[in-house]
Every structure is written in C-alpha cells, then in structure tokens.
Amino acid sequence: MASAKTKSTIQDVAQLAGVSKMTVSRVLNNDAKVSDKTREKVQKAAASLNYLPNISARRLASSKSYFIGLLYENPSEGYVSQFLLSALKSCRQRGYHLVVDECQGSEQEKLQITRDLVEQTRVDGVILLPPFCNNLQVLALLDELKVPYVRVSPDANLEVSPFVCMDDYQAAFDMTNHLIDQGHQQIGFIVGHQNLGASRLRYQGFLDAMRSAQLAVPPSFIEQGQFSFKSGLQAAENMLKQDLRPTAIFASNDDMAAAVVSVANSLSLPVPEKLSVVGFDDTPLATTIWPHLTTIRQPITEMAEQAIDLLTSGQLTLPPSQRLSDLRHVIEFQLMQRDSVKHL
C-alpha cells in the first residue's frame, strides 16, 4: 500500500482491490460490463487510498474530457450551493471534474456562455438547473453542439430530454395538509420566483389542499417572493403587519421561511407559539436557525447524483428514441417535522 506521503497510483488501487489495472480503469470509466461487486471493491480501495485519477492522462487515452458542465441562473443560493456541493462530490467519486458557470444577462449572452463552456472545456455533458433548463434556445444549441445534457426539474417540454425532478405539487399539497391537520385554518403562502415552474407547482399544491379542506385564502394571505431572504422579509412584513394575520405561513423555500421567522420575532410573534412557519427544500439553513424548520426535504443530493450518473454512465449515447423513457427520474421527497409548527 502507498504511504501517506506518497501519491497513490492505479497499481496501488489494483493491488488493494485484488484486481488488474485494466479493471480499475474500467471502473473509473464507468464501464457497464464491470460487476457491482467488483465495482464496489475498486471504489472502496480508491477511497481508502485517496486515489485521484490523472485527468490529463485519461483525456489523452480516450475521446473524453472528464469534465461535466453545470449551468444555472437560480435565485435560491441555498439550493444552488447544495446541488453544487453534491455534484462536486459525485464527480470526484467518478473521476470527473465539475465546471460551473452562472448564466446571467441577455439571451445572447446566455447562449455565448453556454457555447464557451462546451467549446473551451470540451465537457462530456451538461447539467442545467431551473429555470435555465427550460430555455429552448439553449437546448437547441446543445443539440447542435452534440453535447449530452440532463435537465433538473424542468416544467415544460418534458419529452425532449432526460431529466431528474421531484413532485413539487404533491409536496406542497402534503405540507399544507400537515398544517391543516395541526389545526391551522388561516394559512398564508409566499410564492417563489415567478420564472420557476416549481413556484407555480408549489402554489397550486397549496391552493388545491386549501380548497379540498374548504378553507378560504384571503388575497392578503398571499405574497410574491423571489426565493431570496430579502424578498421573504418584505413578504412577511406585508402579511404580519395587518390586522387579520395567519396562524401559519408556508414559504416556498427555506430562505424565505427563515426570513418569516426573523420578522415574526421582531414583531414579538415567537415561532411557533404565536406563528407556525414551514419551508421547502431542507437546505442546511433549515436546521441552522431556531426553531428548526419543518420543511419539505427536496432530494437535491439524490438529483445531483442521478444527473451525474446519467452523464457519466454512457446511457445518453443511445439514440433518443431508445433512451428517454428510461431516463426520466422522479425522486421521492420527505416532509421533515421539526420545531417550527405548533398544534392549535
């Protein structure tokens, strides 16, 4: 075994795993012909040795770059950060590097950023976060450049590409019912960014759950947010400084929910004694603030891992007619019950 001071080699990994160097290479290249048992042995050996493949050598030995691109324009910093960290870890485990770029500006600028990412780094595939994943011009450009891509939580044109997502509508429906089950009838809602399909789905899930329970939603109980903490502050102030106040507020993400808690405390409305608050995503912020947020655990880590797996496993090299039905993944969510909700 290589010493702690010596950089591990592929031969060290092969020796520890009891396989040939060729087998190690196949595992690192996600060769489907390798058995699960052998793959696990090699991965454990590589991890224990802190083995990092030589990207330059691998690029010379194949047509791959071992780079995966990630493009985003998502306003939710917590969501982007968690997805990015999970994607980085997943890439590292597979011997790939992640290249990240933010797409802001005009439509032409976004297209240029996309083209530059592909042509300058020769990425083997691209991950598109919402709402960028719904940009048809970007999708057409990637098709033209013949680069495989996976969309995360698209809300339109689902038939055109592989994607990973969760059921935002059902999650919001279930969370609203959870508040109703706790005795709340006057429930406010902070809508997410208007350009994101997830915002519309979450809002519709909330409305349908309230209607199913035959509960009214006054217009003053609905506020538009932008998925940012700042927008949550303004929305919470608008909702809580009026005479008729909700007993619970459902914010479309954790950043805005944390803002609601802050405003409530400043108005001497402690959470959850005087106001119940719930969020969405289960980012680290949900358990950083006090009280810890009841929230929907969006499977961000799992979606990142699935997207990386699709791009590195070779599945996307199949003709579209043979692949799409098997490459659309809806991943389960969880309702995380914590300290920010009080039973009335």
From TrEMBL:
Transcription regulation among keywords? yes
Q: Which PROSITE patterns match?
A: HTH_LACI_1, HTH_LACI_2
Report TM segments: none
Q: Does the record bear DNA-binding in its keywords?
A: yes
Leader peptide range in chain numbering? none
Q: Which GO terms describe its molecular function?
A: DNA-binding transcription factor activity; transcription cis-regulatory region binding
Q: Which PANTHER family match?
A: LACI-RELATED TRANSCRIPTIONAL REPRESSOR (PTHR30146), LACTOSE OPERON REPRESSOR (PTHR30146:SF153)
What name is this protein filed under?
LacI family DNA-binding transcriptional regulator
Which species is this record about? Shewanella maritima
Instruction: Enumerate the UniProt keywords alphabetically.
Output: DNA-binding, Transcription, Transcription regulation
Annotated HTH lacI-type domain ranges read: 8-62
